[in-house]
Specification:
The complex is a heterodimer.
Chain A (H helix, E strand, L loop, with lengths): L4 E6 L9 H7 L3 H4 L2 E6 L16 E7 L7 E5 L19 H10 L8 E6 L11 H25 L6 H15 L9
Parallel strand pairs in A: 1-2, 1-3, 3-5
Antiparallel strand pairs in A: 4-5
Helix pairs in contact in A: 1-4, 4-5
Chain B lengths: L26 E6 L10 E7 L2 E8 L7 H4 L5 H8 L7 H16 L5 H32 L4 H7 L1 H22 L8 E2 L2 E2 L5 H5 L2 H18 L12 E6 L10 E4 L4 E3 L3 H4 E4 L8 E4 L5 E2 L2 H8 L5 H10 L2 H6 L4 H22 L15 E9 L2 E9 L5 E7 L1 H16 L8 H14 L4 H4 L4 E6 L1
Helix pairs in contact in B: 2-3, 3-4, 4-5, 4-6, 4-13, 5-6, 6-8, 8-13, 11-13
The chains are: A alpha/beta, B alpha+beta.
Chain lengths: 185, 454
């Protein structure tokens, strides 16, 4: 398996804030890109998750609802199992909860994988992000980058850049001393 | 999903054991607001009095999508990209019907290798669409599961097989079309880019596995126990003298119709039904007709790839496929074999075309063509103005053509389930609807189920 950290970037580029993850992915610095297997997808598909396990976790990034617009949240991916999603009824694509359930039924171990989301406000047609989401993009990108580097350092120390390991170790130590602010999507 | 909704404050529901027959029988109905495991969103309404079906209606209330209006004023190449957006499962079909219509009007002769690439493109779509339907939508009905997720917990290899087949189809579409969903390479006159030989050669291992998986699918599907059923509707599909129908041939029927593809309107017409956001279609004598894998197998089995024909014969179910819609799962399996086998041959013989794209000049007139989408015949007709832009469009998807046949089959099938418990009756009715693999998003391009005993 590819030793890079799988970064699954979800979202439709022409549906307003749904494009936030794609836009944030463009802001990732080279040192993150080197250790990330970036996969741009419209919607999460079970096949993206089948070979994910605790040693090879993935990071799913997407726009989320249920939190204030622009707020960045980090949650264990498996928590999505309990979320029905925003009214998707067509079988053209499975809703996230079913996608995750199907992937797990097929052997994926998602316990070490993470969801990083940014609260969206406007999902209407067009490429423009809402002001709150646009303003939060650098923060969203930084959280994605930091998480990828951490996972890379933890799970693939031979491929993670030494500087990144040092940087993320320091960041982790700093964050561990701070109260956690993320809220559930 | 809703349980029985009894009108009139006292009518018996199915399974209650009374009021099943006679003119004084109470009205009974089943109601499911969201039929699951179909493509898109809609409902089914069935009202019964005793054993008599008073009303069988497929209500398609997904909002109209106005594609026929959206393409007005557009150029042919723009139309090809727009109509691909009608469906995430069968975008190739929409592109193929449109591109052939325009090329027929403009007198465009594409490179023979482009013609073969287009067949390969269609093989990819059939693999992807049929695998999704057989394994994720339909097989749970036959194997006693509520969903593919529940089935995957017990029968993991089956679901994995379905995903592998789907992946093979997606890989073909991506190799030719640039991406697996809503491909972007199709152009009037060919493709904007033809794949390199090595790109298609890389598909061989996937396709060899897909062929094995497809054969296993037919053999599995042939073991499924199905309810008894005698079809009402006539069967309609394309047929070609030399090949299993994708892009070319004639429109034929089980009662002797044989017309050229652009002449669809000579034999069929669309009509509106109150309460449905999709147009219905009927034959010129007013009758319903059925499209799709069962019809193709019934009308064009002689042109199946020898491996697919062998598997069909081994099932001994060819006649039943023509008569019992529940056997459509076998038909899809056979077509999976066909698609995988033909794709493998096309990939092995592939040479990049001398001209991936040939020049053409637009002209005014009527562009009309049909191709075989996974769910059946998909007809497009465009009027082009003096500037070569679309003045008027008509897009007739297979699901909207199948609506009347679905309702006719429901009328035949419903009485057979009324002695069953409400839950089981409802499950069988949903299974019947799923047998047509309706793509309601295409047709309005949605489904809830309401069954009432009148």
């Amino acid at each position: 398996m590819d030793e890079r950290v799988r970064l699954i970037v979800c979202g439709e580029p022409w549906r307003g804030d749904d494009a936030a993850a794609r836009q944030a992915a463009r802001l990732l610095p080279e040192r993150v890109r080197r250790v990330a297997d970036v996969r741009l997808v419209g919607q999460l598909d079970p096949e993206q998750l089948l070979d994910v396990d605790r040693e090879h976790p993935c990071v799913l990034v997407d726009t989320v609802v249920g939190v204030p617009a622009g707020q960045v949240v980090v949650r264990p991916l498996v928590e999505l199992r309990g979320h029905a999603g925003p009214g998707m009824r067509s079988s053209h694509a499975l809703p996230p909860a079913e996608t995750i359930a199907l992937a797990e039924a097929l052997g994926a171990d998602l316990r070490a994988s993470l969801l990083i989301g940014v609260g969206g406000a406007d999902f209407s047609f067009g490429a423009a992000l809402s002001p709150a989401v646009l303003e939060s993009l650098p923060r969203f990108a930084r959280m994605i980058g930091r998480t990828v580097l951490e996972l890379s350092a933890r799970h693939h120390p031979t491929t993670a850049p030494v500087a990144a390991i040092a940087a993320t170790a320091a960041a982790t130590a700093h964050r561990a001393s701070q109260p956690r602010k993320e809220s559930q999507p | 999903m809703h349980g029985s909704d009894l009108p009139g404050g006292g009518a018996a529901g199915p399974g209650s054991g009374d009021g099943r027959s006679g003119s004084a029988a109470p009205e009974l109905r089943f109601e499911v607001e969201e039929l699951t495991r179909v493509e898109g969103e809609g409902s089914l309404r069935l009202r019964m009095r005793g054993d008599e079906v008073v009303e069988a209606r497929l209500n398609i209330f997904e909002a109209p999508r106005y594609f026929e209006q959206l393409v007005r004023g557009r150029t042919p190449d723009e139309v090809i990209d727009i109509v691909a957006r009608i469906c995430g499962i069968c975008p190739v079909a929409y592109q193929m019907s449109a591109v052939h219509a325009f090329e027929d009007l403009f007198g465009v002769q594409v490179d023979p290798e482009v013609r073969r690439l287009r067949r390969l493109f269609y093989c990819g779509e059939w693999l992807e669409s049929h695998a999704l339907h057989v394994y994720l939508l339909h097989a749970p009905d036959f194997l006693g599961y509520d969903s593919a997720v529940a089935m995957a917990r017990d029968l993991r290899p089956l679901v994995e097989r379905g995903l592998r087949l789907r992946r093979a189809g997606d890989a073909i579409i991506a190799a030719i079309g640039g991406r697996p969903i809503h491909p972007v390479s199709v152009r009037v006159g060919g493709f904007s880019r033809a794949p390199r030989r090595t790109e298609l050669a890389a598909l061989r291992p996937l396709l060899e596995q897909a062929l094995d998986d497809a054969v296993a699918t037919v053999r599995l599907a042939a073991t499924f126990e199905t309810p008894a059923m005698e079809r009402v509707a006539r069967l309609v599909s394309m047929r070609h003298p030399d090949e299993y129908p994708y892009n070319e041939g004639h429109i034929v029927s089980s009662d002797g119709l044989d017309i050229e593809l652009p002449a669809w309107r000579d034999a069929f017409s669309e009509y509106q039904v109150e309460g449905s956001n999709a147009l219905y279609a009927r034959a010129s004598d007013g009758s319903a007709y059925l499209l799709g894998p069962s019809a193709r197998i019934a009308l064009a089995a002689t042109q199946l790839h020898p491996l697919a024909r062998r598997e069909l014969e081994a099932t001994g179910l060819a006649d039943e496929i023509a008569a019992n819609i529940f056997r459509s799962v076998v038909a899809r399996g056979v077509e999976l074999v066909h698609a995988a086998a033909e794709a493998l041959e096309l990939v092995e013989a592939y040479r990049p075309p001398d001209a991936a794209l040939v020049p053409w000049t637009a002209r005014p007139g009527t562009a009309a063509w049909a191709t075989e989408a996974p769910r059946g015949l998909l007809f497009h007709r465009y009027e082009l103005d003096e500037r070569g832009r679309i003045a008027e469009a008509q897009i007739v998807p297979p699901t909207s053509q199948n609506q009347a046949a679905i309702e006719a089959d429901l009328r035949v099938f419903a009485p057979s389930v009324l002695r069953l418990s409400h839950v089981e009756a409802q499950r069988r009715l949903e299974q019947l609807v799923r047998s047509y693999d309706p793509c309601i998003s295409c047709a309005t391009h949605f489904l809830d189920l309401t069954v009432e005993e009148a």
